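Kindly inspect both lines:
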Amino acid sequence: MMEDELIKIWQSSSNQERIKFDKSKLMIELQSSLDRLHRWWKYVELVEVISAIIIILSFALIAYHAPFTSTKIASVLIIIFGINILIKVLGIKKFKPSDLEENYLEYLNKTKEYLEAQKKLLETAVYWVVLPIYPILLLFFIGFWHIRAQRYFIVIIYLVAIGMGIYGYFLNKKRVKNEINPRIARVNELINELKG
């Protein structure tokens, strides 16, 4: 009974009211989708911060106690590397829109900017995370290479690091393609709807 009445009301409503309803429905769906993405990004930030703190503290100890100069230098470079990751990941926060924007269109524009910053960070991670770590690891292990028993261990760690880099690269590509790009498209669609 109630459903039939709602159908009659919907059919008797004007096209303008239907368009407003469609816009508000699109806004609610987009907001729900963005909230999930924001929660995921918060989790990424938390994991990166905890990882960077562990790396910085661990390699500070190694730099202090390491017997080889190359290992000490590499440990300091890894500390700088960890700080750089913190700066890059936490730097995205400046793009995050607040719910107190002037109007919804302004909020959407800032959301688009935030999503594009996340996209750029994930797409370029191979250049500022993956590639710089390999020469640093090589420098770190050079001092231990003369110890015959350590060679297999060093090779395995290096191969694992390469595998993790490749996995991270493809994971970031997948995340951008499946999570961020569709949301950017939805934001653009809603911006065009509101402007038009």
Observations:
- Helices lie at 2-12, 15-65, 69-91, 104-142, 151-195.
- The chain has one domain: 32-195.
- Residues 87 and 176 are 21 Å apart (CA to CA).
- Residues 32-195 form one domain.
